Amino acid sequence: MTDQPHALYRAFDINGQLLYVGISVNPTARFNQHRAIKPWWTVLANMTVEWHKSREAALDAERDAIIAEKPIHNIMHNSGDRSTTSAPGQAVWLCGVCDRPVADAAGYVQVDKGRAALKVRKAIEAGLFDKRGDCTGTSELIPWVALHSSCDLDPDSADYWMRVERIRTREQIQRFGEHVSEKRWGIATDWDDASHDALAGGAFPTGAQT
Ligand SMILES: [Zn+2]
Fold first, then answer.
1. Can you tell me the distance from the alpha carbon of 155 to that of 152, in angstroms, rounded to the nearest whole number?
2. Which of 73, 90, 92, 111 has the smallest number of CB atoms closer than 10 Å to its CB?
3. 124 part of a folded domain
4. Which of 207, 210, 202, 209 minimizes the C-alpha distance to 39?
5. What spacing in Å lies between the alpha carbon of 64 and ligand 1's midpoint?
6. 50 and 117 part of one domain
7. pTM of the entire predicted model
């Protein structure tokens, strides 16, 4: 998955002010997922996309762009006052229902693993796995969704979940990501993008449904 091309994207307002810099394996799907949810989407006027050959290359370019261009909604790599209550280096998980940060012990991040498993099975049947076992052509990834316990209308659903306080630091997130990638269905989920956005300061709520 990490060898796939990744896009570095820049979002601008009507005055050419840079709002946000991010990366994604599929920027179009990601934009559509989050459109009209985050307040700054309403002032979004222009978006540019620049492709890099790997996730690592895109991450390097993203860090350089944030440091040099200081987008107003990025937190990671970007010093100065931010409208967030999180500690530096800590992931901000925004609730997919109310768009507010989920505090420790107030909720979890979950994914519909049944949908993800079905997606992987269909990809296998369609011959979309290459020799290394990477899945090519899974353009629409199943989203991880952060939720306050109090916002979850279906708390007994069979989703796979992790409490937010256990995926706050980069190390915790990396460890959990490794755990997820060992699951057969993990490859069909957007964990890399979702956790990256959370560490970037929660510019996007996770898994907002259109
Ligand atoms: Zn909520």
1. 6
2. 90
3. yes
4. 202
5. 33
6. no
7. 0.66
Instruction: Report how far ligand 1's centroid is from the alpha carbon of 101 (Å).
Output: 8
User: Within this chain, do residues 115 and 187 fall inside the same structural domain, yes or no?
Assistant: yes
Could you report the per-residue pLDDT of 31-62, keeping only the tens digit for each?
766 654 555 666 778 889 999 998 889 989 99
Placement of tokens 């996007």 in the chain:
204
pLDDT digits over 71-93, tens only? 887 766 665 444 444 566 789 89
Lowest mean pLDDT among 15-24, 72-81, 85-94, 166-175: 72-81
Structure tokens at 188: 């069909």
Is residue 210, in this structure, part of any structural domain at all? no
Q: Do residue 123 and residue 46 come from a single domain?
A: no
Ligand 1 mean position to 96 CA, how many Å?
7
CA of 108 to the centre of ligand 1 (A): 10
Q: Is the dihedral of CA 39, 145, 167, 104 positive or negative?
A: positive
Q: Which domain holds residue 165?
A: 107-199
Give how many domains the chain has, as a whole number.
2
Ligand 1 center–CA 197 separation, angstroms? 17
